[in-house]
Amino acid sequence: MNPNQLFAIPAATGFKLVDSKLNVVIELKATSSDAVFIANKGEIIGAFIEKGNGWYFEFYQNKKLISERVDVKF
Fold first, then answer.
1. 3-state class of 29 per DSSP?
2. Which residues pair with 10 in a beta bridge?
3. Which pTM does this prediction carry?
4. How would DSSP label each residue in 31-67?
């Protein structure tokens, strides 16, 4: 098992992605597409997108687009 894997728990507006200790790491809000969510990771707001064979958290930092692959089990 990957120690960095997150687990999706359904929430009123989407999902909460939690770690193995049930700490909320990312909050997802549903959009009109099943492959795109509005995401909050602490103070960072971005998009959570299914691309190819995985999920990515994308956001801007210092005017540069950052794309982080996220290991999540829905």
1. strand
2. 15
3. 0.92
4. -SSTTEEEEEETTEEEEEEEETTEEEEEEEETTEEEE
